[in-house]
Design brief:
- It is a single chain.
- By secondary structure, the protein is α/β, with parallel strands linked by helices.
- Helix content is 34%, strand content 27%.
- The protein folds into two domains: 2-102, no CATH class; 118-221, no CATH class.
- The chain is built from four helices and ten strands, in the order H-H-H-H-E-E-E-E-E-E-E-E-E-E.
- Helix 1 (2-24) runs antiparallel to helix 2 (40-52) and helix 2 (40-52) packs antiparallel against helix 3 (57-73).
Length: 222
């Protein structure tokens, strides 16, 4: 996927360079800084993410925001509409994420989500899941204008598992033991994922695969 990512960005940059050259030679006049040009910094990375990243939820959110902002700049939509639609759109996206997550298939370097994974959804609220001394087989954590804390530092993790984390104007905190490996795939808009554990890879240890999507939010691994 990294190779495909590089190829796509290479093609995009070559195309932009060719267009700039033709413009300078007055062979193809166009205005590089058209109305809403800044939205390309949201749209292009989102499109590349949709084509290359296994976790496409964040890229889809980013693309929707980018296209919306572009249409607003072109006076096709009004910016005020964002605040009216952002909550229902976020809820729909979260619902789709839950449906798709249940049907997730095995991907390279990852495993399917377990049907036994715990679920927690926080909308305009704070929720937590605790697994002290209990088996942990993965989780589905969704925070929309709220927060979710997953306390699994004292959990019993004996096999690979998946955590699907979605943060939309909110945050997900995931507490994991130090004797597991973590592999993160993520995508989104104005946010990020941070692994604060600073733990080196442990050979033969179970792996927690974290699939994170975010929009104006973030996921912290502690």
């Amino acid at each position: 996927m990294k190779k495909v990512n590089r190829i796509l960005w290479g093609v995009i940059l070559v195309a932009i360079g060719v267009l700039l050259g033709l413009h300078q030679l007055e062979l193809l006049p166009f205005d590089l800084f058209f109305e809403g040009w800044w939205t390309l910094f949201i749209i292009l990375p989102s499109v590349v993410g949709l084509l290359t990243e296994p976790n496409k939820g964040g890229s889809l959110i980013g693309l929707l925001f980018g296209v919306f902002f572009l249409l607003c700049e072109w006076d096709i939509l009004a910016f005020d509409l964002l605040w009216k639609l952002i909550l229902p759109v976020a809820v729909v996206l979260v619902g789709l994420r839950l449906l798709v997550g249940k049907r997730a298939k095995k991907q390279e370097g990852s495993i399917p989500a377990s049907p036994d994974a715990a679920q927690c959804v926080a909308v305009f609220s704070g929720q937590d899941m605790r697994f002290e001394g209990q088996p942990f087989r993965g989780a589905e954590a969704v925070a929309v204008f709220g927060g979710v804390e997953v306390f699994a530092a004292g959990a019993v993790i004996t096999e690979d598992c998946v955590v699907n984390a979605t943060a939309v104007f909110g945050g997900v905190d995931l507490y994991l033991p130090s004797n597991v490996n973590v592999v993160v795939t993520s995508g989104g808009l104005f946010g990020g994922v941070e692994d604060k554990r600073r733990v080196p890879p442990i050979e033969g240890a179970p792996t927690v695969y974290i699939r994170a999507s975010f929009a104006f939010g973030g996921v912290d691994i502690k």
